[in-house]
Design brief:
222 residues; alpha/beta; 42% helix; two-stranded antiparallel ribbon; 8 strands; Rossmann fold; 14% strand; six-stranded parallel β-sheet; globular
């Protein structure tokens, strides 16, 4: 199997990181892991005369106009999300206990935030992380996360742990970096119910206290 190439912009960001070879690594997503993405998106959609239909997980087809309940087109959805990230990336509410837990874990491991968001909004996300006590290196990723996690894992020591809310990202990491410990976590309970547990994740957490117990157990064993 040919390993997918890392996006050049992502590879450049990773290449600029300074990671310690003999120190464990925690790679964490941002939206729905560190920040309340869906909560923020719902507020934004309401202000735009839109709403999210919670019938299924996918964004496609579930962003609808309040005026007639019709879904927006794919092109409109794409622009709405671009506008949302531009307007609200810096304003999203942090997930409860995320900052405090990461601060404790940072005493035992290095932390990298790997977030799928438009690269032009990377600076805004970095400012939000700093403002909420999570001033860790940030990589704005494009597409599946497996290739980026593999590249990060090659630069760091073991164990490597990956925290994300999207099942397909766990599948991608398992394919590209099978030694990485995958932890599935979704902060929004409504979204967590729609998604269900990611089948390819090694662990499933209900909150950051649970994540801390999982990570600590893995670090202790290493």
């Amino acid at each position: 199997m040919v390993t997918p190439a890392v996006d050049p912009d992502v590879a450049r960001q990773i290449g600029e990181l300074v990671l310690v070879r003999d120190r464990p690594l925690v790679v964490t997503d941002a939206d729905e892991v560190l920040f309340m993405f869906m909560e923020g998106l719902e507020h934004y959609l309401n202000e735009c005369g839109l709403y999210f239909d919670w019938s299924s997980f996918a964004l496609s087809g579930n962003i609808r106009r309040r005026a007639d309940d019709e879904p927006v087109t794919k092109e409109q959805q794409h622009q709405i999300l671009l506008d949302f990230f531009a307007a609200r990336t810096e304003l999203l509410t942090p997930v409860t206990q995320a900052a405090e837990t990461l601060a404790r874990l940072a005493q035992r491991a290095q932390i990298v935030v790997l977030s799928n968001l438009p690269i032009p909004n990377r600076a805004a996300r970095s400012r939000a992380l700093h403002a909420h006590g999570m001033a860790y290196p940030l990589v704005a990723n494009v597409g599946a996360k497996g290739p980026a996690v593999q590249m990060l894992a090659e630069m760091a020591g073991r164990p490597v742990l990956f925290i994300d809310d999207i099942p397909r990202n766990h599948g991608s990491v398992r394919n590209e970096a099978p030694h990485v410990h995958c932890i599935h976590y979704v902060a929004d309970s409504r979204l967590a119910t729609l998604l269900g547990p990611a089948e390819t994740a090694h662990h499933h957490a209900g909150d950051w206290a649970h994540i801390e117990r999982i990570v600590s157990t893995i670090l202790d064993a290493a």
